Amino acid sequence: MTTFSETEERQELRRQVAKLAGTYGRDWFARQARAGEKSTELWLEIGRNGYLGINIPEEYGGGGGGIGDIAAVCEELAAQGCPLLLMVVSPAICGTVITRFGTEEQKRRWLPGIADGTSTMAFAITEPDAGSNSHRITTTARRDGEDWVLSGRKVYISGVDEAENVLVVARTEDARTGNLKPCLFVVPTDAPGFEAQEIAMEIVSPEKQFTLFLDDVRLPADALVGDEDAGIIQLFAGLNPERIMAAAFATGLARYALDKAVGYARERTVWKTPIGAHQGVAHPLAESHIELELARLMTQKAAALCDAGDDMGAGEAANMAKYAAGEACVKAVDTAVHVHGGNGATQEYGVAGLLVAARVTRIAPVSREMILNFVAQHTLGLPKSY
Ligand SMILES: Cc1cc2nc3c(=O)[nH]c(=O)nc-3n(C[C@H](O)[C@H](O)[C@H](O)COP(=O)(O)OP(=O)(O)OC[C@H]3O[C@@H](n4cnc5c(N)ncnc54)[C@H](O)[C@@H]3O)c2cc1C
Fold first, then answer.
1. 3 state DSSP class of 223
2. pLDDT exceeding 90 applies to what percent of the chain?
3. What is each CA distance from 60 to 54, 71, 87, 199, in whole angstroms?
4. Do both 206 and 126 map to the same domain?
5. Which stretches of 272-310 are DSSP H helices?
6. pLDDT above 80 (res 174)
7. Which of 67, 88, 120 represents a domain boundary (last residue)?
8. Last residue of some domain: 97, 120, 143?
9. Are residues 342 and 250 in the same domain?
10. Which residue range forms the structural domain that includes residue 72?
11. Which of 85, 97, 121, 132 to mutate to test the pocket of ligand 1 (most atoms within 8 A of CB)?
């Protein structure tokens, strides 16, 4: 039977995560960010409680669940004002790729630390001269005896300061041009030749972004995850989870903003009734709620397809979910700022501080235009322009 609500188990997971995240809350998260402190305490606590590794197989220290579960965790954290971007990369992208394509030895080495949060793994594909066009990446891996030697540059890589390793997307030397034949390497952040420089961002978050310089970083043979010749399939295995998680991050953030706005609109009175009685205030909130529920439904559908192993179906749904979630998030946060009037611009009310993070949900990890391109070409069969 098809059902449009989540299982009781999933709903209970949401309640438990919301309860835990609520003990930290937005004030804590913003305070840590503004003081230049980290969100490690929360990260490790969700790890200890089994939420961070909920999608990792049980034999490697995880909960044996799926992307739907880890996306629910991500959404509930964000809905409490604590959106953790590193959930998208460490358990969802890196965890999935290593689970599906790592050797037994690689899974034993890396998955338990990803699951309990003690050994976070960042993910690096974006480059200054490639951006949305991943086929142009030039980070190159060359063989030297048994070893690999990696050189290149990456930008906007999240959480490198909190990570023990980075899963780096490179190309082999003999595949330097043409369509991307990527290969994936686990690079320790303390490897000689590896340098990370923080990028000053306008996002209120303890999690930071970095430029990476890889200068002849020497790696052992088993740093390569999966097959050197089947990299594109391995990379795609991480991309559906990435989009689903980004959608969950965005819908969670939107829920947080909308809750605040609705609470304010119920109380704030400048005429005879609370401002929420005016349709000019109420309708945008209702519209936002509808758009948000639609985005959540598509996110859950994408996760269900992904967990059922339908990579193609999940690809389309994950793109659509990410698009819908980004749009819903931008609108919800903008509406929340507006409903708060002047208070909307203060640190005290805490909504303006969400603006840049919300705006980024339209850009990363894949922009709205690239999703529209995907749907135009793959779903509608329209010609490609680029
Ligand atoms: C906060 C944050 C965290 C991030 N974390 C990571 C991370 O951990 N790891 C990682 O690898 N990357 C990360 N990124 C990078 C992110 O994935 C890229 O910013 C994103 O893919 C867009 O690439 P770009 O910035 O180079 O933009 P560009 O590719 O330069 O695009 C610029 C604009 O042009 C538009 N555009 C480009 N091509 C087309 C086209 N063919 N048709 C129509 N429009 C087009 C885009 O939609 C966009 O609006 C992060 C980015 C941010 C902001």
1. helix
2. 91
3. 11, 19, 18, 34
4. yes
5. 279-307
6. no
7. 120
8. 120
9. yes
10. 8-120
11. 132
My answer on whether 66 and 109 are in the same domain is yes
Cβ atoms of 256 and 80 closer than 8 Å = yes
Asked, for residue 384, whether it belongs to a domain, the answer is no
Residues 155 and 80 both lie in one domain: no
Q: How far is the CA of 127 from the centre of ligand 1 (A)?
A: 9
pLDDT in tens, 329-364: 999 999 999 999 999 999 999 999 999 999 999 999
Structure tokens at 212: 């990476």
| pLDDT (tens digit per residue) in 21-57 | 999 999 999 999 999 999 999 999 999 999 999 999 9
C-beta separation of 90 from 163 below 8 A: yes
Retrieve residue 359's tokens: 């705006």
Q: For residues 129 and 249, state if they share a domain.
A: no
* Cis peptide bond N-terminal to 83, omega within 30: no
Question: Which residues line ligand 1 at a C-beta cut-off of 6 Å?
Answer: 89, 123-126, 131-132, 156-158, 203, 209, 360, 363-367, 369-370, 373, 386
- The CATH number of residue 362's host domain is 1.20.140.10
